[in-house]
Amino acid sequence: MVLSKYTSVSKSDGAWILFNAVSGRWVRLDEEEIEVDSADRFLSFSACIKPTSLKALKEAGCINENAQEEETAISEFAQNDYSNSKFLQMTIIPTQWCNFTCRYCYQEHAAQRMQDEVCNSILRFLTKNLSDFDLLEVGWFGGEPLCALERICSMMRKISASCLIHKVSMFSTMATNGYLLTPDVFSRLYKAGYAIIRSRLTALRQYMIISAICAQVEVHSSALWKIFYI
Question: What phi and psi values does residue 115 have, to the nearest 5 degrees?
Answer without folding.
Answer: -80, 155
